[in-house]
Amino acid sequence: MEIALVENDYGLPNVTYEHDWIHILYMGISIIFFSIQICQRISIDILYSSKNLETLPNVPSLNRYPTEITPPTVCMSYIWYLVFIWQATWLIYSTIGIFRRTSSGSYFYQHPCAMNKWCFFYTAFALILYTPQLAAAARNKYGVGISIFRYVGTLCEVIIILVVVHVSLWGNLNNYIRHRFFMDVWLTRLLYHNGLALWASVLFYESCLAITIGIIYSDFVSSSTASIIGGFLLLFGLLTLSILENIVFYNSMAFTLSPWLTFLWLLGTIVFYEQNSSSSFVFIIWFVRCLFCLTCILTCIRLCLFYWRYKNKNIPTFQSPRIYSLIVEPRPF
Q1: Please, what's the b/e burial string for 191-223 (b: 16 or more CB within 10 A of its CB; e: otherwise)?
Q2: What is the dihedral angle through the alpha carbons of 187, 257, 264, 140, rounded to the nearest 10 degrees?
Q3: Are 66 and 58 in contact (CB under 8 A)?
Q4: What is the DSSP code (8-state) at residue 192?
Q5: What distance in Å separates the CA atoms of residue 203 and residue 13, rounded to the nearest whole number?
Q6: b/e map of 124-142 (b: 16 or more CB within 10 Å)?
């Protein structure tokens, strides 16, 4: 009697990894135009920093027509360099995802990375749209209509990216945890959420400045009235951001704190800048100071609510990227 030996192969099926070349193309375009913008910004600062800005128009172009809500040129450049550093960090992090494999047969940049293909499509489009604005600044030229279109259009693109990244992280959170990508959850919140929010907040401020300059050019109102209108646009944005972060989407936006850094920096430099102390529009000066004080109050409220919710585990904690209040406790049989 012969005994047949049967071997059962319980090994995992062969998994084939294939790159998404369209996704990689969008990433490459974003990196190229990001590098162009850095070179443009540095060349603008180097070119005009050695000249007498008292006799020449200030650069970039938004500061060519200063208003009461226009920050000093140097301060605006500093905040843009911070945006560039943050952008470079999350671009490098995204590029590393091309070489990371998951157990589900895909690369990390494909899934479950929150910065998906469509996010990079809109990123490339936003960078392409904004690059001519810096080129115009290098030539010290300013077109009112086209500049408003570039600023507002780029802002809308970045807001779309920010919303998609937040929704994508929320939808793929279980996949992050199943693949043990705990650190990537926090890197997504730090790099993508805060980096994109910082970019959007600077663009929003510059959009308010562009609209203010456009109103001045229309000759419908005076320069002081246009500055007040721009200040109210900024006020509307601050209140909207505070409501979204503290009430509506406080779980998803719990760790997105970079916009308040932007507004504190830009408004603070206007308030404490010596040049604005000699302005003849006293009402606008106090209006800007009230905006700065309101920004400080809203920032304190934001931090206090963050601490209270973190302590009570109503938002994700560093011990767990999940939200404790949404986890159902196991029941005994």
Answers
A1: bbbbbbbbbbbbbbbbbbbbbbbebbeeeeeeb
A2: 50
A3: yes
A4: I
A5: 49
A6: bbbbbbbbebbebbbebeb
How many whole angstroms separate alpha carbon 230 and alpha carbon 214?
Answer: 10
CA 209 from chain centre, in angstroms, equals 18
CA dihedral 234, 240, 246, 248 (to 10 degrees): -160
Q: Whole-prediction pTM value?
A: 0.84
Contacts of 258 (CB under 8 A, 6+ apart): 86, 194, 195, 197, 198, 201
Amino acid at 306: F
Half-sphere exposure of 88 (CA within 13 A, CB side): 10
Residue 57: pLDDT band by 50, 70, 90 thresholds? very low
pLDDT higher for 240 or 59? 240
Read off the tokens for 258. 């970079």
Give the span between the Cα atoms of 33 and 135, in whole angstroms.
12
Instruction: Name every residue whose Cβ is closer than 8 Å to that of residue 175 and which is 6 or more positions away in sequence.
Output: 104, 111, 112
- Backbone phi, then psi, for 33, in 5-degree steps? -75, -25
> d(Cα 153, Cα 148) in Å, to the nearest integer?
8
The C-alpha R_g of the chain, in whole angstroms, comes to 24
Q: Determine which helix (DSSP H) or strand (DSSP E) holds 168, and give its type and residue range.
A: helix 144-171
Please tell me the number of Cα atoms within 13 Å of 321 on its side-chain side: 20
CB 152 within 8 A of CB 207: yes
Could you give the 3-state DSSP secondary structure of residue 170? helix
pLDDT one-digit tens code per residue, 190-222 = 999 999 999 999 999 989 988 888 888 777 778
Structure-block tokens of residue 308: 């209270």
Count other C-beta atoms under 10 Å from residue 4's C-beta.
4
